[in-house]
Amino acid sequence: xxxxxxxxxxxxxxxxxxxxxxxxxRNWHILRHVAAHHTVDVLSFAANPxxxxxxxxxxxxxxxxxxxxPAPPRPLYRRLADMAAGHADMARRLHSDAxxxxxxxxxxxxxDVVQAEGIEMAPYLWPTSGPLPxxxxxxxxxxxxxxxxQQRNWLTDARQPRRWAAAAYSWVQxxxxxxxxxxxxxxxxxxxxxxxxxxxxxxxLAPGLSPLVVPNGVDTAFYDPAxxxxxxxxxxxxxxxxxxxxxxxxxxxxxxASLWLVxxxxxxxxAAAPAVRVALVxxxxxxxxxxxxxxxxxxxxxxxxxxxxxxxxxxxxxxLRVGGGTRxxxxxxxxxxxxIVSTSRGAEGLDLGAAAMLxxxxxxxxxxxxALLADPPHRAAMRGAARQLxxxxxxxxxxxxxLDGLYA
Length: 408
Prior knowledge:
This protein is of the alpha/beta class. The protein folds into 2 domains: 222 residues, Rossmann fold (3-Layer(aba) Sandwich); 170 residues, Rossmann fold (3-Layer(aba) Sandwich), CATH 3.40.50. The protein has a 7-stranded parallel beta sheet with strand order 3-2-1-4-5-6-7, with helices on both faces. Strands 10-9-8-11-12-13 form a 6-stranded parallel beta sheet, with helices on both faces. Strand 9, helix 11 and strand 10 form a beta-alpha-beta unit. Helix 7 packs antiparallel against helix 8, helix 10 crosses helix 14 and helix 13 packs across helix 15. The chain is globular and about 65 Å long. It starts with 6 loop residues before the first strand and ends with a helix.
């Protein structure tokens, strides 16, 4: 028997279309799946609502009602005031009285389910003033175990005297986010986690809960190595062994990964293989990342399509040492049949099997890179394993049916 059709409202931190980065990619695929079975509305934020809504045509075609409010400015003085008042920083990042008022208008129409995508949106469903006067089932999709991320940031920064101010910030946020997440988890009717590791972390914060694990996935039809030749040419020399890393390059874990790769790993690689080059591919590179550009390192900034860059990689690298969640960039590399060298933290939440080599210090990472570059048959075997794994385990079509029971 088919489950009844529900009316579901999604609250997203940014418009899910175009799906150019992690949160939007996850939200876009979830919405496409859920809208095939239920009536879906979306209330979101946008930098420029009229222009961004106009560019979100496929999303508008998918849902019933769609609207976006201007993303609220968050100057430093406001962040400091919120912190002095005892708030967790992330909980106030998208605080908007206008959004709360619009949400109240929409909720008056009645919904069966309201789903908050990420911790920035959760306070709208579980305000500190008390529960919303709703009969709807309230669902929290925890894109990350946020308290754990701040704990890891604190542990990393505390080892470096020049980062002690940042360590103090992360310690405070760790404590506040632990309390906030525990409260949200206890009050939610449904909880979604992106990995078994994140689910275990959430259970530790609120014992007795059973989060539904809905991992991040990849569109294997879009990220298809057979289509690589049809994409636009890439300014990466074809006769050069490229190590490619993709991601939003103003995001702290990606900044740190870029600096460590170029500053600590690559001198060891270049000592043995000076022809190897690095491509850091992603939008909004931080000044410290831009400064890495040179004869051996390309920093692209925003590109319209990462697939040609991934296809050009001899190795896809994920030198991540902080952060959490499940890395969409690794799933894209799997689908594009690229052999991977990653840290354990970068591969957290994924079973990469024979498609990857894991290494957690600079010597081991460089050794893995050099060994694979010197062994084309091994790389070829890894390419086959990567594509097979992506299709069998990580395609969105295989993952998203897990959601169906949540709304039944």
